[in-house]
Amino acid sequence: MGDNVPLDAPLFSCSEGVTLVGGGPLAPDDLSQALALAPRLVAADGGAVAALDAGIVPEAVYGDMDSLGAAARARVPADRIHAIREQDSTDFDKALRHIRAPAVLAVGFTGARVDHELSVYHGLVARAETRCIVVGASDVVMHAPPRIALDLPQGTRLSLFPMSGVTGLSEGLEWPLAGHAFHPATRIGTSNRTTGGTVTITMDAPGMLLILPRAHLPAVLTAYGAASLWSRASGTAWI
């Protein structure tokens, strides 16, 4: 993590993948599927309610606690609740900046308020050094690292959405990235398609979001170098 990260609560450090749950919509199997891959559970504020409703007590809860009612809070050991009162960051950011893990799967952060969801994508860029994958109903979203290689079937939808001015190179895309200056106000890269085989994307700077159909989460994990973490759950179907 960068030197500008405020350490205003104890860190959650582990050698396994972490599932980070938020207070947004969850499909019935979202949490269990995420935990099959990333077995350590951390909640962002009201996400603790979803965990408790599933019969799981989160190992840590980070946030300003404005969405965690007294009844739910009483069911979580006090030493696991880390209230961070500043209002300059979101609960997603408060949680993510305190997690030290090989990778994070974030569920319950999409599909509700648009401003909340946009703030999550801002958080992916602001914490670009964290390997976090946001899992939604249809898609997975991650911050594109400096270089990534993905094995994807021909015709797979692959979207790129810039959060700042960036350029890049690619192989294996129907519409190559070379020669294009991406910027959220001028040029975006949604609805590209793969040509088959390995897709490589190289970015010149942080700021690009990579969006793929949810079914291709295993390919993302493999590309992230985290495949060994998920070997026991290789049969999990992300559809």
TrEMBL record:
Coiled-coil regions, chain positions: none
Assigned keywords, A-Z: ATP-binding, Kinase, Nucleotide-binding, Transferase
Protein's UniProt name: Thiamine diphosphokinase
Protein source organism: Roseicyclus marinus
Gene Ontology MF terms: ATP binding; kinase activity; thiamine binding; thiamine diphosphokinase activity
InterPro entries for this protein: Thi_PPkinase, Thiamin_PyroPKinase_B1-bd, TPK, TPK_B1-bd_sf, TPK_catalytic, TPK_catalytic_sf
Enzyme Commission no: 2.7.6.2
Keyword match Nucleotide-binding: yes
Gene Ontology terms: biological process: thiamine diphosphate biosynthetic process; thiamine metabolic process
Domain Thiamin pyrophosphokinase thiamin-binding residues, every copy: 136-210
One Pfam family hit: TPK_B1_binding
